[in-house]
Automatic annotation (TrEMBL):
Keywords: Calcium, Hydrolase, Metal-binding, Metalloprotease, Protease, Signal, Zinc
BP terms from Gene Ontology: collagen catabolic process; extracellular matrix organization; proteolysis
Recorded family membership: Belongs to the peptidase M10A family.
GO cellular component, one term: extracellular space
Binding positions (Zn(2+) 2): 25, 158, 162, 168, 177
Residues annotated for Ca(2+) 3 binding in this entry: 116-117, 137, 140
All copies of domain Peptidase metallopeptidase, residue ranges: 40-203
UniProt protein name: Peptidase metallopeptidase domain-containing protein
Cofactor binding description: Can bind about 5 Ca(2+) ions per subunit.
Length: 225
């Protein structure tokens, strides 16, 4: 086994080795056709979605978490006809459950149900077909309005894109749905993100046509999320 690993590593160039060691999203990249922010197979059958935060991070007050999560959902609401409602009753049945968890944890993510501590996988989210639940790694340091640690608002905006049916985009590094995380002082949805979400069925302007994309391990990326 060790000989095989050594042989395999010899086939990889330095850029690929570096990429494989960087933090990244628990949502896998796949080669697909479709939107620039790659669409997943299903969509929500309604326009008002409910969510609750089942488990909070200890890195900031709950009120700050509530605000940043609401801001992240609003980014997508502003460019679609979706509305998001925060339900604070922990026993209520909602569309999207949000949790800050560590290590092994339950969920509808299949193989994406383990976090690894600081760095590497920062968060993951299920698409509409799997309920849209979003998990953040409590092993990270979550921050507000800062490039230190991992910015909750920016990371949550990316993950909720997955919850709404988007995959990763490769071509536009400034896009929210670019798979690798880098803090952006002037954070906003890119045209690529907007066109991607607006072609998801049942959302407005679904007549837009965008290009197919492909994923390559040899591309140079920043930190992944």
């Amino acid at each position: 086994e060790k000989l095989f690993i050594k042989w395999f590593e010899g086939l990889l160039d330095e850029a690929t080795k570096e990429l494989m060691n960087k933090p990244r999203c628990g949502v896998p990249d796949r080669i697909r056709s479709g939107s620039s922010s790659i669409r997943q197979k299903r969509h929500w059958p309604k326009k008002q979605l409910t969510y609750k935060i089942k488990k909070y991070t200890e890195d900031m007050p709950k009120s700050d978490v509530d605000r940043e999560i609401a801001r992240a959902f609003q980014m997508w609401a502003d460019v679609t006809d979706l509305a998001f409602v925060h339900v604070k009753n922990q026993s209520a049945d909602v569309d999207i459950d949000i949790l800050f968890v560590s290590g092994e944890h339950n969920g509808e993510h299949g193989s994406c149900n383990r976090f690894d501590g600081l760095g590497h996988t920062l968060a993951h989210a299920a698409g509409p077909i799997d309920g849209g639940d979003t998990h953040f790694d409590e092993g990270e340091t979550w921050t507000l309005d800062s490039g230190q640690g991992t910015n909750l608002f920016q990371l949550a905006t990316h993950e909720f894109g997955h919850s709404l049916g988007l995959g990763h985009t490769r071509h536009v590094k400034m896009a929210v749905m670019y798979p690798y995380y880098e803090y952006q002082p002037d954070f906003k949805l890119d045209k690529d993100d907007i066109e991607g979400i607006q072609v998801v069925p049942r959302l407005k302007f679904n007549r837009l046509k965008i290009d197919s994309i492909h994923f390559s391990l040899n591309d140079s990326y920043k930190n992944a999320f």
